[in-house]
Amino acid sequence: YTEAWDADKKSIHVMPDTPTILLAKANAANVSHKLYIQAWEEAKKKGYDMRADAIPIRSAKASRDIASDYKYKETHEKQKGHYIGCRTAQEDPKLSWAARAMLLQNDRIYRKAYHDSKAQIHIPVDAMSVQAAKECQTLVSDVDYRHYLHQWTCLPDQNDVIHARKAYDLQSDNVYKSDLEWLRGIGWLTEGSVDVVKAKKAQELLNERLYRTRPDEMKFTSITDAPDIVQAK
Length: 233
Hints:
This protein is mostly helical and about 230 residues long. The protein has a domain of about 25 residues. It contains 14 helices and no strands. InterPro entries: NEBU/NEBL (IPR055297), Nebulin-like (IPR013998), Nebulin_repeat (IPR000900).
């Protein structure tokens, strides 16, 4: 029943010159961004020819020079008149700085002769302090304190030399530990060592299975003539 109506709904023909269609086309042209900037895009494609002596270029350069000169002199213009009319020289920062610099310069010149002559000291060689320093240096000197003995040369087959070598060998750590060289590289099992036995004993002490017996593992036989058993029967 509705098949013909459904087919007819899909075949609707609107005339292109109806007022609604024309209005929609006009509105689309008005709100179209592409059409709005089309003239600008075409003008950009044509390029431009701007000379260096053109009026806008010369105006921009003049404005830039004026702004630059203004920024350059801005701090100077703000400081104009700030240092005029000081009651005393101490209130003027520049005058105070100059006075301080002059004071430091005068102090350096005043002490110049002292600094030049303070390193030029002449002490007589026989002064008491110099003699005392020399005696003290002699007392604390390691060279004068130690007098090394003559390096004697002994024959290798003398009895005292042979005895000394034997004593050195006995005291030597290498000779003392030479009987332990055969132990190097030998494997050792920790089973039976003190730490292992101690750990096993501690484990046995902390083992709850050995410490307490579960009730279900105990053999128990109830009494047949107990009052609660007789009552239950």
